[in-house]
Amino acid sequence: MPGDSSVNFSVLHRICKLVVLLCFLHIAVTVVFYVRSFDFRVAFVQNQQSNYNIPMFRNTNRVVSSGLEPAKEEKVLEQPVKKLEKCPETSPLLVGPLRVEFNFSVDLELVKKENPNVQPGGRFKPKDCEALQKVAIIIAFRYREEHLKYWLHYLHPILQRQQLDYGVYVIKQDGNDTFNKCRLLNTGYAEALKEYDYNCFVFNDVDVIPMDDRNTYKCFSQPRHLAVSLDKFNFRLPYVQCFGGATSLSKEQYLKINGFPNNYWGWGGEDDDIYNRVVTSGMSISRPNSEIGKCRMIRHNRDKLNDPNPQRFNRIAHTRETMYKDGINSLKYQVLSIQKLDLFTTITVDVGKP
Ligand code: UDH
Ligand code: NGS
């Protein structure tokens, strides 16, 4: 019958349609599963290829939001922390002799812009290699803001080129009593160590600027005198025991001499006492040559509250007897404030009275 055959045909047509639909569905499901398993395999291969163990990956929660709905937390697998190679013994970034002048005024905002890699508190470490030393630079300070600006302007670029992992600490004596440079330097040593595992300490007068970036602000096998040829002494060492202006001591060397004397109030002699400590401890002074060791000192008048200390000659005559009683092991101070500024950390301290 013609009616029957048309019914049969329509049924057949529907069955065919269903089969085609099922086929599409099957293909779609297969594709979805295939793509998912592909993602997983890529992730697995990446993990296998990495040299690092799972703890090196930090699984952090990143907040993502389209801006229209509340931020959601999304798990993001961070890149592995790359182990950097050690920096070379001599930095390839050094340029040698530098022009150092003090006939312009320094804008610290500009210094900050020119040194974008310096972190708050005056901290820096090279990005491409692991620094050989962790250096805390300590400056004893009071009423020398203009000098400090020059120091920051010149030193930050030099220290970065020297590929050091460094921090700058300006230790400011509070109040109006006689200046005590060594108590401030000892305080700087103690406070810097609370913040980071420094293994080298540079003690730099705020008005002394190196004129050659090959004069590396790091530590050597013997305590180092860095400011060896100052312009004010016609680029000569004024006397062989001279150990002032800028020096570096490793943590070990500093502890071996029991740090610096705490009882020199006012100007003079404290650097000679440190020299005596070094020699008494069986160490010697290391120095760069007089070309590399050239430095400029900012000319200035004698500071108020830092008159020559009349007791200094008597004190340096007795370093040997006093050095193990008076030093970092007997240091007393009170921190009044710590400020992390853009280009340095400033610590204001009460170091007591004479
Ligand atoms: N310092 C201060 N404020 C002071 C005194 C000293 O910040 O009031 C710091 C500063 O880092 C300075 C360092 O301590 O660079 C050494 O100071 P100093 O007085 O021992 O040495 P400086 O060579 O001056 O700077 C010596 C007196 C120069 C008199 C020159 C007269 N023409
Ligand atoms: C010596 C001082 C040192 C001082 C050096 C340079 O005489 O503390 O001169 O001084 N020693 C004594 O007084 C015992 S300077 O010309 O840089 O002001 O560092």
Automatic annotation (TrEMBL):
Q: Which GO terms describe its molecular function?
A: beta-N-acetylglucosaminylglycopeptide beta-1,4-galactosyltransferase activity; cytoskeletal protein binding; metal ion binding; N-acetyllactosamine synthase activity
Family in the record: Belongs to the glycosyltransferase 7 family.
Galactosyltransferase N-terminal domain span:
87-219
Disulfide bond is among the record's keywords? yes
One Gene Ontology cellular component term attached to this UniProt record is: Golgi membrane
Chief localisation class: Golgi
Tell me the pathway: Protein modification; protein glycosylation
Q: Which InterPro entries match?
A: Galactosyl_T (IPR003859), Galactosyl_T_C (IPR027791), Galactosyl_T_N (IPR027995), Nucleotide-diphossugar_trans (IPR029044)
The encoding gene is LOC100692970
Q: Name one GO biological process term.
A: protein N-linked glycosylation
Query: Which PANTHER family does this chain map to?
Result: BETA-1,4-GALACTOSYLTRANSFERASE (PTHR19300), BETA-1,4-GALACTOSYLTRANSFERASE 1 (PTHR19300:SF5)
Q: Which Gene3D superfamilies match?
A: Spore Coat Polysaccharide Biosynthesis Protein SpsA, Chain A
Transmembrane parts of this sequence: 12-35
Give the protein's recorded name: Beta-1,4-galactosyltransferase
- The source's domain of life comes to Eukaryota
Catalytic activity reads:
N-acetyl-D-glucosamine + UDP-alpha-D-galactose = beta-D-galactosyl-(1->4)-N-acetyl-D-glucosamine + UDP + H(+)
Entry membrane topology: Single-pass type II membrane protein
